[in-house]
Amino acid sequence: xxxxxxxxxxxxxxxxxxxxxxxxxxxxxxxxxxxxxxxxxxxxxxxxxxxxxxxxxxxxxxxxxxxxxxxxxxxxxxxxxxxxxxxxxxxxxxxxxxxxxxxxxxxxxxxxxxxxxxxxxxxxxxxxxxxxxxxxxxxxxxxxx
Length: 145
Known about the structure:
The chain is an all-alpha fold. It has one domain. It is built from seven helices and no strands. The chain has helices spanning 4-18, 25-38, 56-67, 73-78, 80-101, 106-119, 128-142. The chain is globular.
């Protein structure tokens, strides 16, 4: 029993050395850009807005939360800097939550965040077409580092 305590302390210490760093703002910005680059082509009548292909109800809700004003889908689509500001706010929270859920595994966290973006369910990050999409997002994300 007395040998277990030093071994446990050693494992805790070593685990601290190899723990990944927290999610920085630069990583959130890279994810937001990876989502833009991975967005599927949309037809003009798709009802989605901006280079990120976002539903109007999300634009309204997210802009209220992130910039304290309701932005119309047209404003959002016309102002990429505003869109990016809102999406960094939204996806920063999501990516940090998924980083914790993934046991501080950044690769899995990016895939889980991409699945959340596509389906609302981060647990689908390996499933079917969602899994293929999350891998495209991950590939685009990794190009920034």
